[in-house]
Amino acid sequence: MTLKDDLSVIVGEAFTAEGLDHTLGAVKSADRPDLAQFQCNGALPAAKLAKKNPREIAQAVAARLGDASQFSEVSVSGPGFINLKLADEFMSAQIEAVNDGSRFGGWLHETPEKIVIDYGGPNVAKPLHVGHLRAAIIGESLKRILRFAGDDVTGDVHLGDWGLQMGQLISELQIRQPDLVYFDPAQSGPYPVESPINLQDLEEMYPVASAASKADPARADLARKATKELQDGRPGYRALWKHFVDLSVAAMKKDYADLDVEFDLWKGEADADPLIPELTEDLKARNVIEESDGAQIIHVARESDKKEMPPIIFVNSQGAVGYHATDVATIVDRKRELDPDRILYVVDARQRLHFEQVFRAVERAGYYAEDHLEHLWFGTMNGKDGKPFKTREGGTLKLRHFIDMVTDRALERLKENGFADGYDVAETNEVARQVGIAALKFADLSNPRTSDYIFDLDRFMAFEGKTGPYLLYASVRVRSVLGKAKAAGAGDPGPVQVGEAAERDLGLVILNFADVLRETYEKRMPHILCDHAFSLAQAFSKFYAACRMVDEADAEKRASRLSLASIAGGQLDLVLSLLGLDAPERM
Ligand code: ARG
């Protein structure tokens, strides 16, 4: 139950006492915070039903609430809005109740679920693009939020390690170095430990191989053939493939670690591959799969469809397994290995059709319920020209360069502000990374997931306004305020007793956390939590400006304010961590 739920029950009882339905008592945050803290608009629909004047009903309900100890003021305004203000004692007790040093009032999912969240999708040997960056940022935050709400969540990186790019690389290498033992059919291993190529080679080879395959049909054929042989298990190719995957994964792990993104599972498309023959047989036997021009396809169109819904190609006419089949098989694999209640995919909006087809196919096959599969798609991060973000040279973004760019800019900003003075190099660099990543992540998360947004590093990096650096700074500030108070002998935190406007405003934000978290969870929209973080930081800042702390003469007030500050700081740090942001000790 959130605070609004509790208040809705109280107001609902007043409606019941008037002979009306208790659900009319639903309470929400006030539209006019200058007039009230909460409001209930139930008198308006009630009046329509009872053919009465809404103001009269509102007055009657308000009169019944007049004595309720929870409220200091109940009034009626406009056409029949019931405005509510909490009594200071009630608010203080509510704040005390969330002061547990861990959840700070955070909402809990009543029926926890086992969830797999698929939010990486980087491709072996291919550079990560902006879509992968957003997936990592949004997915990491959702994973943390769901986990905090009580769900049992497994994050899977779901590597793109099984596509045509692997065949392109193998055939490229075969042309460059035909004498490598890996290509000798007579040699089935063991292969030399000495690696034929390193990560730089891989990064150099991939664009060349991919361009060659696009430009030259003969090369495309070679690549397809190599892909097929790899998928069929040719030992030298498998050994090379394993080597490519290992090189890429080592580099990816470093990038994700710098982003504070952590996966529980490092499985990939290749892991689903062994299931394909078995599934193909099963689907054929049950007439889910049909043959069409030598390919195995599954129809997923429905009569109610308003748009075209093409069938999925499970296995193509050359026997190769594509992206759709891999995702179908991955769902079956996850069901067998983990048996989750739900699978979430944090993947680019451009793949909406793909997921719709896959979800329908598994529903048709009876492998998994479609309504327990969610594609949490997101919009594009654009450059200032409104087109998908590119490097200055016009190339695809490499995550590593991106991380370096935001870290360097953060370092500059910190130096300008004199923050870095007197810190050793290691600490300065780590703070710069945290600030840079916070700028990037917060900018990404604070836009509704489904919208596009424009990448503007100067704006994201500002130390004032709704930015990641501002929030880290706010967190550091609360800590330093409390530290200074302690050093100045201000005493210990004590029972909360709100009494000033700025204290009530801060208290209200703190108590709103449960509702915010529930809404964030239900909509799978981290920007709602971002708004909360910003409101909290602002309310703290106003409170700190308006209310004395160390030099407050009244010991009880002082103790109460120390508590308020520590609860606000604790909740802020918690929210930042749910967003995937890490506040430094000092900055
Ligand atoms: N590797 C894919 C890409 O780069 C993304 C994978 C997303 N996850 C999935 N289960 N399909 O587009």
Automatic annotation (TrEMBL):
Predominant subcellular localization, coarse grouping: cytoplasm
InterPro entries linked: aa-tRNA-synth_I_CS, Arg-tRNA-ligase, Arg-tRNA-synth_N, Arg-tRNA-synth_N_sf, ArgRS_core, DALR_anticod-bd, Rossmann-like_a/b/a_fold, tRNAsynth_Ia_anticodon-bd
EC number: 6.1.1.19
Domain Arginyl tRNA synthetase N-terminal: 1-86
Domain DALR anticodon binding stretches: 471-587
Signal peptide interval: none
Position of sequence motif 'HIGH' region: 122-132
UniProt catalytic activity: tRNA(Arg) + L-arginine + ATP = L-arginyl-tRNA(Arg) + AMP + diphosphate
This protein's record includes keyword Transit peptide: no
Enzyme superclass (EC): ligase
Keyword Hydrolase appears in the UniProt entry: no
GO molecular function: arginine-tRNA ligase activity
Subcellular location: Cytoplasm
Keywords: Aminoacyl-tRNA synthetase, ATP-binding, Cytoplasm, Ligase, Nucleotide-binding, Protein biosynthesis
Protein family membership: Belongs to the class-I aminoacyl-tRNA synthetase family.
Assembly and binders: Monomer.
Cross-referenced PANTHER family: ARGININE--TRNA LIGASE, CYTOPLASMIC, ARGINYL-TRNA SYNTHETASE
UniProt-recorded name of the protein: Arginine--tRNA ligase
Originating organism: Hyphococcus lacteus
